[in-house]
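Work Package 4 report. The design task specified in the project plan requires that, given a folded chain encoded as structure tokens, an amino acid be chosen for each position. We show below one input record used in the internal validation round.
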């Protein structure tokens, strides 16, 4: 009888600890994003949205939206002021152009480098890929989405559209978000990454 009670108690505590450690998401990236959004100290969500937050809505992972491409570097690209959703201007330059095939079509996207990031030890290797596609305003945020990249060692880079995320201003208008340049439009439905909030 004692053994049965012990086993029941053990199962109860294991069950509780597993519930506590439960992660929401299909991939490691989705779990990481949901954990950030759940953490009040890091979350971009407003207090009222954080209170009811269960997890971001993602498309199912699709390996056909992961592409490898070589970069055409733009070492002489001029700095320009990228407009944002506020009066702030983000000082950027085109670091490289990525040309790749997606769903049987050829596309080129500009990858940007921010002046502010270059002067930061933590973000000096950071690259920024904003894009628009035919899901915007329907399944995804109307203003487009972003992908974070890092400067590769050999100019070959992986672009994983499953890691496409919404600008922070999609969750809270207090944030200032770069507006996606129209030149970075993909004329297809990118059914990967995060959906509209």
């Amino acid at each position: 009888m004692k053994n049965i009670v012990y086993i029941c108690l053990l199962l109860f505590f294991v069950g509780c600890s597993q519930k506590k450690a439960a992660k929401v998401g299909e991939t490691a990236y989705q779990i990481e994003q949901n954990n950030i959004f759940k953490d009040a100290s890091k979350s971009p969500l407003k207090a009222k949205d954080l209170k009811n937050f269960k997890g971001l809505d993602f498309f199912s992972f699709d390996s056909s939206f992961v592409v490898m491409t070589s970069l055409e570097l733009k070492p002489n690209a001029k700095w320009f002021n990228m407009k944002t959703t506020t009066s702030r201007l983000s000082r950027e330059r085109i670091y490289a152009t990525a040309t790749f095939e997606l769903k049987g079509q050829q596309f080129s996207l500009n990858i940007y480098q921010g002046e502010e990031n270059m002067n930061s030890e933590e973000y000096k290797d950071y690259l920024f890929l904003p894009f628009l596609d035919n899901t915007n305003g329907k399944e995804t945020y109307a203003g487009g989405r972003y992908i974070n990249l890092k400067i590769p060692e050999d100019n070959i880079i992986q672009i994983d559209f499953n890691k496409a995320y919404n600008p922070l201003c999609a969750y809270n208008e207090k944030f200032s978000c770069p507006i996606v340049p129209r030149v970075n439009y993909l004329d297809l439905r990118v059914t990967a990454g995060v959906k509209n909030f």
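Residues 36 and 70 are 31 Å apart (CA to CA). Validation will be extended to a larger panel in the next phase.
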